[in-house]
Amino acid sequence: MHILLVFIDGFGLGEADGEINPLVRFCPTFFHSLLQQPLTKACGRIISDEVCLVPTDATLGVSGLPQSATGQTALFTGINAAKKLGHHVQAFPGPQLAKIIAEQGILMQLQQQGYGVTSANAYSPDYFELVAKRRRRHSVTTLTILGAGLFLRSFAELKKGQAVYQDITNDMLSACHIPVISARQAGINLAKIVKKHDLTMYEYFQTDRIGHKQNWLKAEQIVQDLNDLLCGFWQEAHGDCMMVLTSDHGNFEDLSVKTHTLNDVPILIVGQDCQKIAVQITDLTSVTPAILSVMQEGDERND
């Protein structure tokens, strides 16, 4: 089984109102074709043979708006980081969260069990230098990759179509002489990576950035790029792969506010056996153990 774990930052289930929700106003065809309606809270819980949607509370039982560092740690370790610390943590993880990720990260756990894992994201060649100079900080996803001892894909892989940049199309890299590609081609490239591994992670965070800025013009482009990426991926990967799409908190689904939201986030599972993951989801901490159990069950079935 080949699984793509797509993490979309700040991507909640909002109102079915195009005045505030870009996912309604611009209605991406990928979600609409799967769900027969826009991706909103009106969808409710959907369990079917090849498409499952589980609206999931991102607050983790802790008061206050959910935040990235603790939400992502919960997603990628199975540990309720917010409850463990007693509060939500914004943006980048500190030492306590870094320790949890190092000990329980999903990629590390799978690699120790003999699975082939990777991240499809491309990083700049000077990434580690920028971190050393404190001009950048490791995100939860990056610590999850590094905790498994994996290399970070760079521009060399990106030029060969063996990585996907965080903006999908490479449009932000024009000064680096990286060719711009279509979002659909990025999805096809992603599928080729996924087919070579048991589990592949891909992170997209422009949703959270634009949500905070309440930029409708950029939001329209983001919806189109995400739609074409997922369409390209699924067209290339369908039949061989499962996709698990997750988020850490709401934001992009309500451009009437600058902050995160208390909306549930979607756990969208597409592909054969999707129900086996869906029935295990109760909150953000369920994602890692659900994926682990389904992969292990698949191995036992094939023995």
Explain this structure:
This protein is an alpha/beta fold. The protein has one domain (2-302): 3-Layer(aba) Sandwich (Alkaline Phosphatase, subunit A). Helices cover 41% and strands 12% of the residues. It contains 14 helices and seven strands. It has helices spanning 22-25, 29-35, 68-77, 81-85, 95-104, 106-112, 127-132, 140-147, 155-159, 183-194, 206-213, 216-237, 274-278, 287-302, and strands at residues 2-8, 46-47, 51-56, 117-119, 199-204, 241-246, 265-270. It has a seven-stranded mixed beta sheet, sandwiched between helices. The longest helix is centred in the C-terminal third of the chain and has 22 residues, at 216-237. The model has no long low-confidence stretch (mean pLDDT 94).
The strand count comes to 7
**Series of secondary-structure elements, N-terminal to C-terminal:** EHHEEHHHHEHHHHEHHEEHH
- CATH 2nd-level architecture: 3-Layer(aba) Sandwich
Distance between the termini: 14 Å
Helix content percent band: 40-55%
Total domain units: 1
Estimated radius of gyration: 18 Å
Unreliable parts: none
Main CATH class? Alpha Beta
Molecular shape: globular
Tell me the CATH topology: Alkaline Phosphatase, subunit A
The structural class is: alpha/beta
Q: How many helical stretches? A: 14
**Strand sequence of the main sheet, in spatial order?**
2-3-7-6-1-5-4
- CATH H-level name... which superfamily? Alkaline Phosphatase, subunit A
Average predicted confidence as pLDDT: 94
Largest sheet: 7 strands, mixed
Strand content: 5-15%
